[in-house]
Model the fold of this input.
Amino acid sequence: MNPLEILIEYWPRLLDGTLMTLKLTILGALIAGLVSPSLALIRVHAAPMAQAPLRLYVSFMRGTPILAQLFLIFYGSGQFRPTLEEWGLWTFFRDPFNCALLAFALNSTAYQTEILRGGIMGVPQGEIEAAKAIGMSRPKILRRVVFPHAYRIAWPALGNEVILLMKASALASVVTVFDVMGRTRQIFSRTFDFSVYLWAALVYLCITAAFVLLWRQAERRLSRHIHAPGMPRASAQPFKESQA
Amino acid sequence: MFEIFSYGDAGWGDEILRGLAITVQLAIVTLPVGLLIGFLAAFASLSEFRPLRALGFGYTTVMRGLPEILTLFVVYNGVGLLLNLTLRWWKPDAPPTDFSPFVAGVIALGMVFGAFAGEVLRGAFQSLDKGQVEAGRAIGMTDRQIFLRIQLPQLWRFALPGLGNLWINMLKDTALVSVIALDDLMRMTKVAVGVTKQPFTFYLLACLIYWAMCVLSEVVLARMEHRANRGIRRA
Done:
């Protein structure tokens, strides 16, 4: 079969896989995105002893292959089946999708925490002092001063992390989740037609390209006050190192 | 309790260690291949010749956007098909051969490493001080001498942190080859799990081994960076 015939015959499967890939990536990134701000605050402000478990967690997540983490959760949970059944959690761990999502969310949380920590530490002390001086409460300072600025600093790195997560989501196919990679392997095992891999590559590249564009749009929105007319450009980006 | 990890027939210690040896071999063989591809990609994207520049840019962009496991399957199945096609064209009655998963792993991981390394090296090249090249030319050094004596030693200093990260990523990515049936650490762990029915214990052990390798790499890389930066005044 020529490449086009493969596409015509199997596009519904590939589309189905694409939706699964998007679902895994977006949910994983969102869950990690909800948890990481508070963990990042701990990493910045808590006493060193209180940070120790968090550091260990981040180091473990960054120092081990995601595939191994996925197997540890998906196959590893089987070792505790009686206990998990007792707690009513076994139905959760039996499903490969849930395990993949959990693994990706745990992994991405570690990376996002570190990225956000960098962002928070990049917020100039003067801004926080100014907020204190006009009498803002601590939660308000975090909400109105620290996090908006921290996210603006961390935004490009967070985008990279989401792309890495999207690429990692292809590993879910190994535990029989039918994402793009899973569908592709299924189609290949049936047709032995190599071109299906090229279509899969195209799908991944399109997802990445679309995401990069969207993320840049969001970045422009996050920093719209900087590009507002009348603002001096030179002082607008104090965090880019000047090329002297 | 620790009998299952022991060396010999009763335990899985020796099997796991053998898998670890394959993993380490794979990573060590991939490194020079990946660096070579990285240098080629960097030179291509810095070239004055436009089509070559486009090729370098295209390669690094596409390769970095694809999941590593997809690259691995493309290489494993694609080269395997190509190999058999060539073989049949050469000798029509030859039996089909299997493409070595180790070689497929080296090529695929090397291609991924090379794409990222190309960007790291390009960045390092561009941060070199142009005045030094001009100075070299002024005292009559050849291009080759300028590259070997001025650019390359400093390239190392700028590229080392980035390449170190890539090494650690590649070390972790070697786990993927277990999917194409290479008997690495991950796959031997799977074999042990199949027999002992203790998945959590053994996958945790595998994780701890990878973790130890990564932490060790970080320590060594920090030393190498320290050494590469000797004689540089801190701003």
